[in-house]
Amino acid sequence: MAFRIAQALSSIGKLALATAIGASLIAGDVAAQQKQPSPGSAKAIFGGVQLPTQGAPQPYGFYAKGCMAGAEALPTDGPNWQAMRLSRNRRWGNPAMLSTIEQLSRDAAKYDGWPGLLVGDIAQPRGGPMFNGHASHQIGLDADIWLTPMPNFRMTAEQREALPFTTMLQKNAFLTINPNVWTPAHARLLMRAASYPQVERIFVNPAIKKKMCDTWTGDRTNLGKLRPEYGHDSHFHIRIKCPPGAVNCKPQAPVVAGDGCDKSLAWWFSPAPWAKPKPPKPDAKPVKPREVMVSDLPKACQAVLDAPSVSSVRAATYGGPSAAEVLRAQPIDAPPAANDDELPDRGPIPDDKPAAQ
């Protein structure tokens, strides 16, 4: 495995060139995410809804083209998790997804030496396309988990907004894991999540996938669920299957057999991901890109937008109203002081495009 990837790396040429190309891709992704959606676009409309619909949970459409009814909010705090970036209002999901997060937080703390999860984006109150950051996360069956362990104090809302991402990549090195940041507990956490039968895929940076391929000595049955995807160097993305009875949910094709430690992984370390697209044929009509509109989504999504809202976030919180605790003004314990040299580099803003995986 290491030899095949070394061959692919050598074909890139100079490492500096590859790094520059990767940096330019990240910069382009960030610029695309920051573009303001037009007022009538699906991003603008779904992003403006603050509460979910009443009624039973139901995903409509595909992970990257759909919406959801009856969403529930992950509580801001659980026994082994803390929700991050609360201002985004993206901690909504199908109860099956929230149950998976709860299960992982509990099992990882009990068996894997992981103190707790920092939970990032799940979905908007009614799903749909997000203003920035993701192409998927539209039907409440995707969730981002930070690769930073939960601290031993309860963070304030301000701290949850300001805490930087921790990249697992080594600075100034092409797709290389930083040994000073990566730990065996990270590997155990990923394989714990992959072991759940409801988990369809877990998206990680190609360097993380390679690290797992090279070092994981336990049961490799579920290693194939770890799918390489750029951008996932500071978090991993869990995708679960369509829940039983969700007849309006469009499933994704199962992952191919095997552990994924083959030429499909080596491709990510080759020049192929940066190859320029083929020029259009001379007689081809130019395709003008346009924003996704609500009419482009499943027909049920308009009804989801029109449906009455729940009365409050508290009323729609996973686990019932008693789980919807208000954040304390101060953390339980003061966070330990850290100087700048001890703080990890902030990772790139992820560009989530896993639909083809």
- Main sheet record: 4 strands, mixed
Number of helices: 9
Strand content: 5-15%
Low-confidence stretches: 1-34, 328-357
Overall average pLDDT: 84
Strand order across the biggest sheet? 8-11-9-10
Tell me the total number of β-strands: 11
Percentage of helical residues? 25-40%
Q: Gap between N and C termini, in Å?
A: 20 Å
- The helix-strand sequence is HHHEEEEEEHEEHHEHEEHH
Structural commentary:
26% of the residues lie in helices and 12% in strands. It contains 9 helices and 11 strands. The strands form 4 sheets. Strands 8-11-9-10 form a 4-stranded mixed β-sheet. A 3-stranded mixed β-sheet has the order 4-5-7, with helices on one face. Strands 1-2 form a two-stranded antiparallel ribbon. The longest helix is centred in the N-terminal third of the chain and has 20 residues, at 15-34. The two termini are 20 Å apart. Residues 1-34 and 328-357 have low confidence and may be disordered. With 357 residues, it is of the alpha+beta class. The protein has helices at residues 2-12, 15-34, 42-47, 95-111, 157-162, 184-194, 206-215, 263-266, 300-306, and strands spanning 58-62, 65-69, 72-73, 77-78, 81-83, 92-93, 117-119, 142-146, 199-204, 226-228, 235-240. Strand 1 (58-62) and strand 2 (65-69) form a beta hairpin.
Give the secondary structure arrangement, pairings included.
Blueprint: H1 2-12, H2 15-34, H3 42-47, E1 58-62, E2 65-69, E3 72-73, E4 77-78, E5 81-83, E6 92-93, H4 95-111, E7 117-119, E8 142-146, H5 157-162, H6 184-194, E9 199-204, H7 206-215, E10 226-228, E11 235-240, H8 263-266, H9 300-306
Parallel strand pairs: 5-7, 9-10
Antiparallel strand pairs: 1-2, 3-6, 4-5, 8-11, 9-11
